[in-house]
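Justification of computing resources. Each target in the renewal requires a structure prediction run like the one illustrated here; the chain below, 352 residues long, is used simply to show the kind of job we budget for.
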Amino acid sequence: MQTVLVLFGGMSPEHDVSCVSVTAVLKNMQKENRRILPVGITKDGKWLLFGGDNYDDIAGGNWEQNPDNRTAFLSPERGAGLCILSGETVETVPVDVIFPVLHGENGEDGTVQGLFELSGIPYVGCGVCASAASMDKSVTKLIAATTGVRQANWLTLHRRDFEADPAAMCGQIAGALDYPIFIKPCCTGSSVGVSKVKTAEDLLPALAEAFKFDKKILAEEFINGIEVEVAVLGNDDPKAATAGEIDAGAEFYDYETKYVTSTSKPYIPARIDDKTMADVRAWAVKIFTALGCKGLSRVDFFVTRDTNEIVFNEINTLPGFTSISMYPKMWAADGLPFGELLDRVIELALEG
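Resulting structure tokens:
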């Protein structure tokens, strides 16, 4: 019997997205000869072993109120596993593998991966260094640059400088980049805090919004291209799936477009020629490898509309697993259905 600890929720602006992702994971994970321990982390950091059997309660946000929930935590002591509190007694359950279905800070930024390393339990996804580097968009860009891939021009900006002189920061950006400009927090996902700025008047509020989520942000050149995503899977010999394309149906693929409205439309395979398809898949593997990733990641690009050039955008080391998420959809299109994909990432975790 294999025991899988599945973590979800978390102290992150992407808490709700995680709850939707894990619902799909729990519904599709193979149950035979496997004990699944779904543990949710509340927005204020409390760990609870979910005591219900209706996984839709997790996606609906009702899971915290289940009367059968029990306080639980992962011990950093080797061999201790999951500690479950029942009154004044503590039950310890050995865990074979951890599947973190966590998005954003405190979930895919290397912090919780450090706890997994201390516990000595294998876990799905990238290690501490790769997770931290991939979560920070400014660090990602510096490492990706070693591969020679084209990237949008960018500036890295700090909250302390913004607070000291907002006008000077606006001038710095305007002197380096042409409008429109993207303003992005460095360490959020799901397009949280991201703005597309078209005029000088809109720059200051966009900066203020981004700095709500992070003390370090990017100002980035606009790339007129189609958004292409590549699912990568593997450890020492990673493979890339057939690339997919997102038609946002909006100004850009923001949080609302991803999770609230229905304007976006996916295309698998992406509407690019065969050579560009081969090249974008090769670049995805190169960037995955350069960042030291393992297990799984989704690597995102633009393909320019005028010159058909590939431009690296960002990498996501714990991509979404919701019903609309591209990562499982791309592998399904290549003949690896959702349930088998989950088995495969668990196998890769156990391989180390």
